[in-house]
Design a protein that fits this description.
- With about 425 residues, the protein is of the alpha+beta class.
- It folds into four domains: about 90 residues, no CATH class; about 70 residues, 3-Layer(aba) Sandwich (YefM-like fold), CATH 3.40.1620; about 40 residues, no CATH class; about 150 residues, no CATH class.
- Helix content is about 15%, strand content about 15%.
- It has a four-stranded antiparallel β-sheet with strand order 12-13-14-19. A three-stranded antiparallel β-sheet has the order 3-4-5, covered by helices on one side. Strands 6-7-8 form a three-stranded antiparallel β-sheet.
- The chain is globular.
- About 35% of the residues are buried.
- This is A disintegrin and metalloproteinase with thrombospondin motifs adt-2.
- One of its GO terms (molecular function) is hydrolase activity.
- Pfam families: ADAMTS_CR_2.
Length: about 425
């Protein structure tokens, strides 16, 4: 989190913002804030004359910000200065004016979610355009638990029939200016015009565990201007893995879990790197259980599924799709999108996997405030098994990740300095 002093100086000689960079990773965002609010002063806060580029960095040298940015501008961040000079040859694709003040008509809610999560399978939690998107757009992906807030949707994002977002409100849409390169107008974004392409299937893959099947990822593309269509763009189907696994020994789920847990333990010291792991029994109320990898704890006994800790770590805390997970006496069940589902199960064309009647941890998985407490004991118990592999909590409702209290994020980010006091009549 970037903390900004945000001081606006009343002295006419200065008009830049001051930013205190706490960590190296904050430098880009901090400099972006400065660049937005920078003024026309040709001096820094010490009264020293600076050139055009130094002015954008401001007086950040006390925390290494200026040196950091000087290194960036000589390397990959030279684009920070594109367009600052009238003579710069910047392509039209880099000029925000081309969107006519309504970028959401091109970068719809789904595309905004894809950019936020860097995941082409991401989509709004509420797939149908609605006014709530203008206040806070929530995004999900079938590859992670929970959802992520993206902030208010971009201006021009569809929020209803012939409605779009402007300034955090859902208002009647207007025609995009002809001077822009967009053309057209905003609809309800449900994909009635053109809509989805046909499904494109990937190659059959498999984890080659005992009794497993292979899986194919299926994707389709929304052909509307805004990229908003009703239903998922991602699906998984089972396939025959006999040829794929013919030249290798099929491993047990316990062996695969042990390998994965050893990898997880390099990031999570609370896990025993040599303690192995297991596959939990299927629970029809918690369909994820039979597909999550449970690892033995380093202390205290029992097993734990590190789904929360690994949600953003780039490690998959689940068994591969196609892994056998249950038999109900008539049908085999296999993992599909991290849920244990019957072999003949078909996801509806308009249904996202998170709409299944399955209990799970719920809440925002955005970065927490520095003062936010660690996951509660109830959350850890919900994701734990005893030494026999039985859930510690049965029939308990899933815990909710509570939002951080507002005062965790409050900061005195600006100080008003009064102007010169008026002289009294007697002076």
């Amino acid at each position: 989190m970037v903390q900004c002093a945000g001081i606006t100086l009343s002295d006419p000689s200065f008009s830049d913002s001051c930013v205190r960079i706490l960590h190296r990773c904050d430098a880009f965002v901090a400099n972006f804030i400065v660049a937005e609010f920078r003024g026309e002063s040709n001096k820094d806060l010490n009264g020293e004359k600076v050139n055009e580029r130094e002015r954008e960095v401001g007086g950040a040298e006390g925390h290494g910000g200026r040196n950091e940015m000087r290194g960036w501008e000589r390397g990959w961040a030279t684009c920070l200065y594109d367009g600052g000079d009238p003579d710069d040859a910047v392509g039209d694709e880099l000029r925000h004016e081309r969107f006519g003040g309504a970028p959401g008509t091109v970068w719809g809610a789904k595309r905004q979610c894809e950019l936020l999560l860097r995941d082409r399978d991401a989509a709004p939690t509420r797939p149908t355009p609605e006014p709530q998107h203008c206040v806070q757009l929530a995004c999900r992906t079938p590859h992670r638990t929970g959802f992520y807030y993206a902030g208010p949707a971009l201006p021009g994002t569809a929020c209803g029939q012939d409605m779009w977002c402007q300034g955090g409100s859902c208002v009647k849409a207007e025609e995009v200016p002809e001077s822009s390169t967009l053309g057209g107008s905003v609809t309800d974004g449900t994909g009635e015009d053109d809509g989805w392409s046909t499904w494109q299937e990937g190659a059959c893959r498999s984890g080659c565990t005992m009794r497993s099947r292979g899986f194919r990822e299926r994707r389709r593309v929304c052909n509307t201007i805004s990229g908003n269509c009703d239903g998922p763009s991602y699906d998984v189907a089972l396939c025959d893995d006999s040829k794929i696994c013919a030249k290798k020994r099929r491993s047990s789920t316990g062996e695969l879990a042990a390998r994965k847990c050893g990898e997880f333990a390099t990031l999570l010291p609370e896990l025993d790197p040599r303690g192995g792991g297991l596959q939990a029994p299927h629970d029809p109320t918690r369909m994820w259980m039979g597909c999550a990898v449970f690892c033995r704890r380093a202390s205290g006994g029992g097993f734990y599924a590190p789904r929360i800790e690994l949600n953003d770590a780039g490690l998959d805390p689940y068994f591969p799709d196609g892994t056998w997970c249950h038999h109900d006496g008539a049908n085999d069940y296999f993992c599909l999108q991290h849920h244990c589902l019957p072999e003949n199960f078909k996801m509806g064309a308009q249904m996202h996997v998170w709409e299944l009647p399955s209990q799970d941890v719920w809440g925002s998985f955005n970065a927490r405030a520095l003062d936010a407490p660690s996951p509660s004991a109830a959350l850890r118990a919900y994701l734990s098994l005893d030494d026999r592999g039985a859930p510690l909590l049965r029939g308990a409702p899933p815990p909710l990740l509570p939002p951080d209290p507002e005062d965790y994020w409050e900061d005195d980010d600006y100080v008003e300095i009064p102007g010169p006091l008026k002289q009294s009549k007697n002076e």
